[in-house]
Amino acid sequence: MSPDQDLPTQLIWATRGHSWGFRFLMDAGLPDPLPAYERAFADVGDEPTAWRRLVDTVALRFPDPEQRRDDVGRVIPHEFVVSGELAASVTSVEEGLRRIWPLVEATYARVWDAGGPPSATDLESTAG
User: Are the C-beta atoms of residues 28 and 8 closer than 8 Å to each other?
Assistant: First the structure.
C-alpha cells in the first residue's frame, strides 16, 4: 500500500488465514465494521465471487488469487466493502481484483500463514 492512499477509510477487509479464522483485517476506521459489512453483503449469497453496488459502497468477494487454502483445505475468500472514490472504480469482480488486490497483496502474503491472527502491528508493518 502506498502512503498516499487513505485506505483505512475506504476498505473493510474480511478474510481468514491458514490456521486463523475469519476476521476483519481492515475496518475502514469504524469501531465496529460488522454492520457495514452485513449491509453490503446482505443480498450477495454465498457464491465464491460476488460484486454488488450499493449507493456509495461496493461489496466484493473473490477467492485468494494465489489459491491458498486454510489448514482444512478450504479456499480462502477475501471480502471487501469498498467506499469513497475507490468504490466508483470497482465495476466488477475482475476490476476489483485489478484495483483492490494489489493494495493488500503484500500484507496478506506476510500474515496468512502466521500461527494466529495478525495484530494491528503485523498489518501496519507492510503498509508503506
Answer: yes
